[in-house]
Amino acid sequence: MDKELLKAAADKFGTPIYVYDLLKVFSQIERVRSVFEGVDHSIAFAMKANFNLDILRALNNMDLMIDCVSFGEYLQARKAGFSPSKAIINGNCKKQSDLKQYVCDGVFAINLDSYEELLRLEKIADRTVRVCIRVNPDVDARTDPHIATGLREHQFGVDYETATRMIERIRKNKLVELIGLHCHIGSQIVEIEPYQEALLSLRDFIDKTGLDIQVLNLGGGWGIDYGDGRSLDLEEYKQKIVPTLKDLSAKIIVELGRFIVGAAGYLVTKVEYVKKTRKKIFVIVDTGMTHLIRPALYDAKHRIIPLYDTSDRERNIVDVVGPACESSDVIRKAIEMPIPKEGDLLAIGETGAYGYSMASDYNLIPKPLEIIWDGQEFFRSS
Ligand SMILES: Cc1ncc(COP(=O)(O)O)c(C=O)c1O
């Protein structure tokens, strides 16, 4: 997004603010659609990445499905206008009361995360409910260990032996209808091989069990460029993954979060102090881990974009830190940049996913406003 636009948003609404570029969201969706050209597919938005109501409404208007990992997310999706028939229910801890509501509303599918969950669902199902089994293919997603989910050591999904027992059990149940399989191996995946491995392993299982699937949900995880030039190569995906999908006569679902909204978001912040100590220069800004926890939690590195005139500024190595009373409140450590002055603005790039949705009230630092750019004007999101 243009720097002048980001500055204009900060002038109008103050700082810190999240600014979301809807046009970028739309263009990312078009990129996904073009990957699956010729394949019966649906895109679900993984709303854990961003639950902003205006964004959700826009995605509903674009006919996306919605992936919810909690009852709270499901209610927010309903509020944004998503019909239950477009909702996919994920998560490893679905409460009994939540399951009852999903069954009653007739959601598209509940992705069963365990044998135990199937037993719970059987007890409460008083009408037909569609399910997929989330399998854990024991594949290394080669991403940050904090956001990998597809290894046996992770708490998500079931191994193939358990999946087989679940299939047998579901076959005997008249109300639980197995429509397919689900698999999500991790997030911010930038290599194609983990997807290939997972897909081959799923296909083997389908062949061995003779399972007739209507749906194959491949989860999300497509990695985006956070400034290091590494992202999932969509052309490679099209060449190496899509042909196998075409051979399966099933509807393919992808549940993407980061890929759809990540690069559409900027966290615009103001420099409050430039504190020079004998050891370091600290750029203290009015946003930090309570608004964007990824650097503190995962050591994630986001681009820092100066929105001030840098031509006359000395460059030096600095730590950009936030206002929380916590030494891990660091946005970026040891980064070389043109030294800002008090009042200068910075934009933190690629913060549309897992930014605001992971924000907290820690230290009672107020949360930032969320501002939408629709290509014509900015508006404050509700
Ligand atoms: C079950 C499930 N589906 C989809 C996603 C979306 O992942 P991403 O935002 O990396 O596309 C996640 C995120 O971890 C997830 O847990």
- Classified in CATH, the superfamily of the largest domain is Alanine racemase
Bound molecules: pyridoxal-5'-phosphate
Tell me the span between the first and last alpha carbons: 22 Å
Q: Based on DSSP secondary structure assignment, what is the total number of beta strands?
A: 17
- Beta content comes to 15-25%
Give me the secondary-structure category.
alpha/beta
Secondary-structure element sequence?
HEHEHEHEHEHEHEHEHHEHEEHEEEEEE
CATH topology of the largest domain, by name, is TIM Barrel
Unreliable spans: none
Fold and architecture overview:
The protein has 382 residues and is of the alpha/beta class. It has two domains: 174 residues, TIM Barrel (Alpha-Beta Barrel); 118 residues, Lyase, Ornithine Decarboxylase, Chain A, domain 1, CATH 2.40.37. The strands form two sheets. Strands 1, 10, 11, 12, 13, 14, 15, 16 and 17 form a nine-stranded mixed beta sheet that branches. An eight-stranded parallel barrel has the order 2-3-4-5-6-7-8-9, surrounded by four helices. β2, α3 and β3 form a beta-alpha-beta unit. The longest helix is centred in the middle third of the chain and has 17 residues. The structure holds pyridoxal-5'-phosphate (PLP). The site of pyridoxal-5'-phosphate (PLP) has 17 residues, from β9 and α11. Pyridoxal-5'-phosphate (PLP) binds next to β9 and α11.
